[in-house]
Amino acid sequence: MVEGRLLETTDSSSVCMRSVAASLRGEFMEPQDMPVWVGRLARSVGGWGRRFNTWAVDRSQSVTGIAPEVADRVTTNDLARHALGFYRGLEGPFDAVIVGAPNGAVAHLATALDAPFLSQHLLTSFKDHKHADDIRTYFANGCALAERVLSRNPDVAVVNHYDPLHDRFLVRWVNHIRYKLIDLPEAYRQSIRNWLRPAGTLVFIDCRYPWRQYRVAERHTFQVGGLGGVTDQEFLAGRPEFAAMQRAEHSPWTGGWKLDLPLEEQPESEWGALPGLRHACETFAREHGYEFLALTADHPDKFSTLALHAWQALFSGAGVKPQGTLVDCFTQVNPVALRLSSLVPLWLPFNCTDSLAFLNQMLPELNRDSPLLFAPVPNFAPAFDTVPISGWLQALSGFDVRLLGIDPRHYPEDLAGLFRFTPALRAWCERHPAPVEARLLPSELRRIAGAMAA
User: Fold this and answer.
1) Which of 13, 72, 281, 415 suits a disulfide with 121, CB 3.0-4.6 Å?
2) What pTM was computed for the model?
3) CA separation for the pair 25, 178 (Å, rounded)
4) What is the 3-state secondary structure (H, E, C) of 390-446?
5) Residues 324-353: pLDDT tens digits?
6) Where are the domains of the chain?
7) Run of H or E including 212
8) Contacting residues for 341 by C-beta, under 8 A, at least 6 apart
9) Cα 147–chain centre separation
């Protein structure tokens, strides 16, 4: 068994589970899972400017990452036990348990159902220092890590994920190994049995967002890029903006990032579910007398629409008038706020142009007569597809927008904003208490999902 830290606790899958566990406890969660003094320091120096913030984050990444030797000892049940550790002390029983692809909207759905969520995806960021554009070194080192895990774990697939645009400040220092469970680990099985009421519902999040990946081995793929305003093919073929970015940084590489390997369409690394786990969950549900509900969509933002409709239905059924809308983004999530202050959620997958287009599409469904709490995630590799704060605020013109911890002068390189989000949201909820105890029934979620699919 691997002792100590194994999972990256600030990535989307861990944050989704941590936020759900906190919500089940009636608590707020700090997405930046770091010592208190780090947040205090970030808040005190975050106003020093964008250049300093970017430098500080880059230097902090140089001392992060897990030793590559840990890959020799990783087991699927270790991964599952680390994930279940987020739920320590929560015993149920629950009407539903959710398994599958993670995202912030799933956290909102889990909170509506008052149900735990267990992610199919789990991430380890291993130490690996190289140039951000050096795809071949990243690939070679990732292969070595993946092979060490796969040789001992037949029930997991690995996606070695390399995004030199949106994760540019990260890929210099770490190598992302994303594990995808293709069967239910025994630790998950035992927890589901302990948590679910007899005849309860096992929900599977089947996100089928596609991305071309390089096929390395039977259970091993390599992904270049990720969700945003750039397509999978553009990451490989190149765009003029890539070369301009690389020239500005005096990089020895220019253009896209390609390998001489076969390409195939696969569920995207961070958001897409591999099919094996769905089959395992459906079989497990049938064998134990549980209802099975698969929620299927071709993009993570479709689950955001579902969560919005689910919470609207919950409030309507309970006779509750929502106090406002919470528009959160990527890992800046805290679904407990929905229950504490009767807020309707709209989660954005990231801070890029495609998420802005989704927001614009959803504006007619949002209430302009109540506050809109907005939490765009800061990041420290702003690219040409990153939406500036002016772009977000222009889209939200006519709404009573309250920025949650964000300083428009520094966004998106807003270091302090990462740590101000939770205190700002907690403070708003304390000033506007309107707790809602009602839960969404799994049968109602099934009806809402069916109406959306019709």
Assistant:
1) 13
2) 0.96
3) 28
4) HHHHHHCCCCEEEECCCCCCCCCCCHHHHHHHHHHHHHHHHHCCCCCCCCCCHHHHH
5) 999 999 999 999 999 999 999 999 999 999
6) 12-319
7) strand 210-217
8) 323, 324, 428, 429, 432, 433, 434, 435
9) 25
